[in-house]
Amino acid sequence: MHIESLSVERLKPAPYNPRVPLKPGDPGWEKLKRSLDEFDLVQPIIWNRRTGHVVAGHQRLEVLKSEGRSEVDCVIVDLPLEREKALNVTLNNAAVGSDWEPEKLVDLLGELRELPGVDATLTGFDDQQLRDMLFVPDPDFTPPAESAVDRESDDILVRLEVPRQDWDQVRTELDELLAAFPQIRLHVAADVA
After folding, report:
1. Spatial contact of 17 and 88, defined as CB atoms under 8 Å apart
2. In sequence order, what are the residues at sequence separation of 6 or more whose Cβ sits closer than 8 angstroms to the Cβ of residue 161?
3. 18: Cβ–Cβ under 8 A, 6 or more apart, which residues?
């Protein structure tokens, strides 16, 4: 692997890049900017010597340019355009990697959240996402007024918001959970039946 520091002026975005560009203010932009501010560029830009195109790292490059960087570290490849395009898709394709192992992810995030001096939101998950994954009560959550919650009970009220397109799959999982724990009461707020 060959790494060089190159002028950002030399790095042309690939005109075919299928990724939606981030813009300042987008949540993804802000998370990426924060990560780069904290950890610097630990994953270099991939640049093709033959075409001058950025093969991967378009978003990182734009954030770094917005911060005034004039040079960035790049992994240099030397590929014909058709192979460059295949590499671009491969490096940007979430299906090429693997999914999270949920229990390990939750354990790791819980550990990071408890460490003094470590901000677990540097993982790219915001506070709400971390609370949701770790089942930490949301201090700002107020149950809806129409909810009949016995304030003297020891029950924990959980609000689950499910995208409509995922409801059938989630409902199957909830049915299994309710069968295993018949003492759980479930209230569905939208007309999804």
Report:
1. yes
2. none
3. 88, 89, 92
